[in-house]
Amino acid sequence: MADVDQGSALPTETTSPGLDSLNNDTVSNGTDSINATVTKFVSTPEGTALAYGSLVFMALLPIFFGALRSVSCSKSKNSSDMPETITSRDAARFPIIASCTLFGLYLFFKIFSQEYINLLLSMYFFVLGILALSHTISPFMNRAFPANLPNKQYQLLFTQDAGETKEEIVNYEFDTKDLVCLVMSSVVGVWYILKKHWIANNLFGLAFALNGVELLHLNNVSTGCILLGGLFVYDVFWVFGTNVMVTVAKSFEAPIKLVFPQDLLERGLGASNFAMLGLGDIVIPGIFIALLLRFDVSLKKNTRTYFYTSFLAYIFGLGLTIFVMHTFKHAQPALLYLVPVCIGFPVLVALFKGELTEMFRYEEASPEPDQAQKEETETEKKEK
What we know:
Blueprint: E1 2-4, H1 45-74, E2 84-86, H2 88-111, H3 114-144, E3 153-162, E4 165-175, H4 176-195, H5 198-215, E5 216-218, H6 221-241, H7 244-251, E6 257-261, H8 264-267, E7 274-278, H9 280-299, H10 305-328, H11 335-353, H12 356-361, H13 369-383
Parallel strand pairs: 2-5
Antiparallel strand pairs: 1-7, 3-4, 6-7
Helix pairs in contact: 1-5, 1-9, 1-10, 2-6, 2-7, 3-4, 3-5, 4-5, 5-9, 6-9, 6-11, 9-10, 9-11, 10-11
């Protein structure tokens, strides 16, 4: 899921469905180039260490903060903030759908012009990125917004006549703080569209990853094992078995990866030799780590044993991926290393503590959207 490319322009990634195209599944050692005529820049050891260290650090941010936000998100009664729950059936079908989508993209890039496809994708992710970034920074805006400024409430309502009653198509409530977040995110979106700058790419990428970890919830540990196990096979097959993954990764232009230049020390912010990490390597293990944090909370022991264990396991697995990549100088499926450690370490800890059965019996109970909407309506009636 991580991909390193040498001597090219801003690198590209591949996608997985259901995560707003957040998944990339290859690790390359930099020996491949999009354009064979481009002179490769040989990065210094310092530049390479800085790039990989920065990528690991950036990958940890959305997992850590997204997991924390997922705890409050699971308790939310606001229908607009309620998470999307992944069931065991969804988890079992996901690798199949991902494979079909990946191969479909491969055919699209073979048949149609890459330029026009990426133009459409850029506009699509421009809108998604603005919304994701706005949602990400909204908690910070709530704290930073000056108390002496008025915070007006707004409502965007679209209805459709259905006999004597009106059916709501869109009912979105927002305030001045949300508008400020939207304007700030739009500035980043315009910057990305016009320049495709790597910093703008990373801002959108971090927002996508954090929203994915926060809002995509596994209903239990067994579902997490099914999802990670299925994507483990998916990752290994498409990286080692075919050239489909690498082809799509090098053709796909979208902020679905984190990038950091290996030549930053030599060329500054205008650097172009990027190491990259696909967002799927963050979101897929991240939603499992977030589940373990919510399991820790459910134990009511004021400890975060399973969260910190899986978090450290993720760091170890990502480091192992980078080590193997440089040792064998060949593309590596990151989930090959991340899945065993992210599942294995917490399971061993639970076995040692005698809580293995309790871990696999843990089932999240979240309020139904309809019930939450009824509660909101009743509250509004009382206020009126």
